[in-house]
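Session log. Operator J.P. requested a structure for one protein chain; no other inputs attached. Running the standard single-chain path with token output.
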Amino acid sequence: MSDAIKLIKKMDEAFKAKDTEGFRATLHPEYSFKGPMMGFDNVDEAVAFVENCPFEFHNENETYAEQGDKIFRVFDWVVTAPFQKTIRMVEYMKMKDGKLHSAELFYDTAEFPQEAMAAMAAE
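Structure written below.
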């Protein structure tokens, strides 16, 4: 397993545990994230999301492919609370200086439960 994939797994574990310091330690100072339902332009926004993330989850069936500083990951995002659902996702990430520099996440938003969408909109 490459150092980049080890770092991504470390980032995931910190995210899942809401370990904001551990999560921050994996990110490049210029980190950005783009997904179908949200985005972050900097590390502080990403850390704030992790700190307040309403989901309990883990990932399964992960497959990685690397091409230089680019990593592609296909995985099942398994949510256990506040709803139960498995959503297939694809993530495209770039590394810089040994840290995660950017990430773009793809999934079918129709798979996201409507009640969860309503709860997120109310916050």
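Operator note: Residues 3-122 form a domain with the Nuclear Transport Factor 2; Chain: A, fold (CATH 3.10.450.50).
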